[in-house]
Amino acid sequence: MFIIAAIAYAFSIFVDVSVYHFKYYIQDSKNVRHLLSLINIFQYCSRGFILIFIPIMAYVTESVKDKNEVWYITVVAHFLVVLFLLPLYSYKFTYFFALKVIMILNRFFGKSKSFTLKKIEKQSKRQGEIFLTDWILFAINYIAGFLFSISITFLYYINFSYPQKALMLSSMTQVINMFGSVLLILLIDPKIMGAIDDGKGYKEIKILTTSRILAHITLVLILFYIQ
Description:
- The chain is built from seven helices and two strands, in the order H-E-H-H-H-E-H-H-H.
- The radius of gyration is 19 Å and the shape is globular.
- By secondary structure, it is mainly α.
- The chain has a two-stranded antiparallel ribbon.
């Protein structure tokens, strides 16, 4: 059971991050709105996998009451996130994965007019160009990913230390989750989408992927420290 929960959580984060790669690599100037709607459908899948993770964690916490198992699930979940995100550094994997997903979704939710996907080549790296704005983007996304992930996964483990404060802990994690989500919505999404609209975005998406990976590595280290 805990393997299912860990995989579900890891895949939810993978979907959330991969949609940025979808928007960069897959474009169709004649079907922009339709393409974005298909990408949004795929992104909603991440919420569905969270709905698998949460009931299992709640069951293990409240019914099984095994603190060690909750710890193992949480560690494995964050470790799998790192493994799932690493393939996104591969241009071939990202493009063809995005292409297949969009084609499958279009079969179910498509329209009668022709649907042509344009392949966007990855941008060449610019040597020696590291701007302050890149570090700001990295820091904000790291904090946002950290807050978003710790609020969802650490609740169940911490609950064992404060069994009488379950409702208060749940409320606090929702507030933490809200701050992480606000940072993503207000500061990360506009920056990356604006870069893609300007014909750029490759560097920004790599920064996003790297910061997310480091955030989950940090969470794994914290789990080993508090064990």
